[in-house]
Target: Target of rapamycin complex subunit LST8
Amino acid sequence: MSAENGPPSTPGRPRPSSIALLFRKFCVLETQEDLGHSITDSGSLESETDAAMSVILCTAGYDHTIRFWEALSGICSRTIQHPDSQVNRLCITPDKRFLAAAGHNNVKLFDIKSTNPNPVITFEGHTNNITGVAFHCEGKWMVTSSEDGTVKVWDTRTGSLQRNYVHKAPVNDVVIHPNQGELISGDHAGMVRVWDLGESVCTHQLIPEEDTAVLSVSVASDGSLLCAGNKKGNVYLWRMVQTDETTRIIPVCTFQAHTNYLTRVLLSPDVKHLATCSADHTAKVWNLDADYGPAKVALKQWKEQEALKPPVETPTEEPVAPAEAPAKSSDLLRIFGTPAQDRDLLRITDNPPRQDTPQQTFTSSPDGPPMDPVNHTLFLETTLATHQRWVWDCAFSADSAYLVTVSSDHYARLWELSSGVVIRQYSGHHRGAICVALNDYSEPR
Model:
């Protein structure tokens, strides 16, 4: 299987967002109506309308229905029945032609522009709940993960199975690296695996926390970061460094994002934000930008306060002979200098190790995102807290300025992240909404 793709997008230069154009037009129209101006003489607004109409937003869940929404009005424009089972995950092809709906043991592919309620193709082969789905950048193939313990790669044109990778535990999520040549999956045993599609092998195994299920994984749009979240609410962040022969995975930081079950982690398209969803009824947005103003101010104030504290005298202790190191001590790494924080402990191994790659030494990354020295987390930008039950899934807009969340309270909500305000609420599901897909790119990805 080839990795046919162009270079990944540059972080910090977000792609055009149709949702942003939609609300810009809405605000302009309101202003023109207030001033008594004509709203029919603006070609630019018409082009923005065309872009806005290309927003694909859909949700699904336990009521066995898939709903398409008009982003601005909040109206449900189309409903597709999914009688086989609940829908666990949704994914839109990059060209906006098809929607994949992952159910109990199959994935159905629907034509977005057609009124046909039947799938154009069904992918059969999994034997348990399908937990993750993602598309190749040109839609040529699709990857799925399942509680049956496998990650499968499918030809989207024929529906045939191309690859089958086996975990030793149920697989909870899978994503495609932007280089289109690697997959990253997380499982119930606490393992994060990186799969090389070209050589069809697992090149890395990461165990962020022993015997703690990894429920969600996310990779940055430029391939620079890998993120995983587990059932204890802990988040792990690694830097991915590509070389000619391999990918080095370097720990950056780890922190507790929620004190309850974590359901989703998602890196924003501009790689400046990290969204987390949880059973605690909230979604949170964390900062990854080294130039984040509030972080600079907080760090400066903290350093000034620390400088005013009197030095603490430590008692002199007799030197102790070092104990014999365990055989695999090189696999252990602490990110921060506080030994008491067990969540700062990562175990990283290669399985199977590449014969042509020497043993790698993993060290903490000095160029990571700013960390809050008081809470020992990334800096929290906003907490989205109006849902009444578990928040299961989320999706960023193309410009990273908006976030859509879905919850067991039956609602989907569109948030403006700069203000933390709900812009639209989407009401129609009569049971829990557990998955969302959004594609509002104004140009093909």
Notes: The first helix runs from residue 18 to 35. The longest strand covers residues 247-256. DSSP finds three helices and 32 strands in the chain. Confidence is low (pLDDT under 50) at residues 2-13, 28-49, 323-364.
